[in-house]
Amino acid sequence: MIDATLKVIATDGVAAATVRTIAREANVTQGLIRYYFQSKDELIVAAYEAHMSDMLASAGSAMTGAGTAKCRLIRYIEATLKAPVTTRQKVGTWAGFFQILLHDDDMIRQHTKSYHELRLQTKTLIADVYAEEGISKSDSELRRLSIAGSALLDGLWIEGGAIGETFHPGELFRVGLESFGALINVDLKGFRDAKQGCGDT
């Protein structure tokens, strides 16, 4: 049911995501949907949570595993700016949710939760890179950089998903790597080039 909701929203927007339409897409009865979800709004929030959790998991998996902190950050940036995270369907679904996000308290709470999880991932990676470089940064500095870094990747993600065909292969990742490196004043691109990759995703 949640997958069907996401598919309807990605294709036709939130307004088209009626219980009838979702039931038809999921090949279930409307009664079954109402059995699990008290309202359509509750189903929409659950679908948004699943959508964001999937993207967080896809990008977050790149920050684990072997390698230096810089390599983990590089893999994270790359995972954020390529499929399956950066696709027209993912951005389209996210844009569809935004039609109601700013006017629904439950959606705002879920978005706030997802944003803080994403920013914490970014902050942790930045802090690890600085620790590896022997650079000391205050928590407030790390917070500022994680907000800016998240915004940078979000902007590239939106354009990459919406009009990905206008970019050269690998261009978004290279721009993201150079821009993020400039933001934190660490040469991520030079490090990756010297290493000839970081076990890229």
TrEMBL record:
One GO MF term on file is:
DNA-binding transcription factor activity
Which is a Pfam family this sequence falls into?
Answer: TetR_C_6
Keywords on record? DNA-binding, Repressor, Transcription, Transcription regulation
Per the UniProt record, which residue ranges are transmembrane? Answer: none
PROSITE patterns given for it? HTH_TETR_1, HTH_TETR_2
Tell me the DNA-binding residue spans.
18-37
Protein name according to UniProt: TetR family transcriptional regulator
